[in-house]
Amino acid sequence: MNKSNLLTLCLAAILSSCASEFNKVYKYADNDYKYEYAKQCFAMGKFQQASSLLQDVVMLKKGKDNAQECLYLLGMSQYCNRDYESASSTFKKYYSSYPKGIFAEQASFYVGQSLYSSAPEPRLDQTPTVGAINAYQQFLDLFPDSELRPIAQKRLFDLQDNLVQKEFLSAQLYYNLGGYFGNINSNTESNYEACIITAQNALKNYPYTKIREKFSLLIMKSKFYLAENSSEEKRLERYRDAEDECYGFLNEFPESKECETAEKFIAKCKKITKE
Questions:
Q1: What are the φ and ψ backbone dihedral angles of 183, each rounded to 5 degrees?
Q2: Which of 16, 104, 127, 247 has the most CB atoms lying inside 10 A of its own CB?
Q3: What is the pLDDT of residues 87-108, one digit of tens each?
C-alpha cells in the first residue's frame, strides 16, 4: 500500500471516529456536557457541529448563567458556517433579549455583518442590502464609541454604493432602450424620461456618489434625445431644457471627457431655440 492510500485510510478513520463521537454527544442527555462539547467544536472550527449542538441546548440554557454566552456562540457558529440568514436572526434575538448584555455590542454589529455577507450583486434585488444598511446604522447609533465603528462605517458606505449602482444600471437600461415603447407605463412618456427621473432621484438620494458624473451624463443625453423625439408642441421647451442641462454639465464637470458631447448638443439646441 502506497503512502497516499494509507493517508486516505487514516483520514477516513479519523473522520469516521469524529462523526461517531459527535452523534453520541448529540444524543447525550447531559446538556451541560453537550454545551461544553459544542464550545470545543467551535474552537476547532467545526462550526456546523457546534451550531447543531447549540441549537439543541440554547432554549434549555435560558435563565442560566451561561444563557447569554450560549445564544451569542450560536450566532457566531452560524455566521462562521456562512448561514448568514440564521446568524442575523440569532444576533437580533440576542440583542432584543439582552440589550445590556455582555455581548450586546458584538451582537448588534454582527446583525449588519451577517446581512452584509449575504448582500447580492447590484443587478439583483437589494432588500438584504437595505436591511444591512439599517442594521449598521442602528449599531452606529447605539454604540458611537465602539472600536468596530470604522468597519461598520466602511461597510455601510460599500452597501450604499451597491444601491447607487443598482439605480445607475436601471437608468442606463432606460437610456439604452431609447425609443422603444414596449415597456413604457403611464407615469412616463418615454424611456428617456424614465432615465431622467431615475438618475435625478439617485442624485437626490446620494448627492456625493462617486459616479455622479455618470448619472449627470445620462440625464444630459436623455434630455437631448427626448427633445429630438418630442412632438412639435413640446419640442422647443425640451430643447431649452436640454441646453440648460448641457451648460450645467460643463460647469460641474469642466474636465470631463464628455465636454465635447455637451458642446455639440448645445450647438444643435441653439439652432432650434434661436429660430
A1: -110, 5
A2: 104
A3: 999 999 999 999 999 999 999 9
Residue 59 near residue 93 (C-beta atoms within 8 A): no
Contact, 49 vs 42, CB < 8 A? no
Q: CA-CA-CA-CA torsion for 29, 35, 41, 47, nearest 10 degrees? A: 100
* Residue 36: burial class (beta carbons within 10 Å; 0-12, 13-18, 19+): middle
pLDDT digits 0-9 by tens, 222-270: 999 999 988 888 999 999 999 999 999 999 999 999 999 999 999 999 9
Q: Which amino acid is at 216?
A: S
Give residue 205's pLDDT. Answer: 94
Q: Which residue has the cell 435560558?
A: 62
Nearest to 34 by CA among 45, 44, 26: 26
Residue 158 makes CB contacts below 8 A (sequence gap 6+) with 116
The whole-angstrom separation of Cα 51 and Cα 18 is: 16
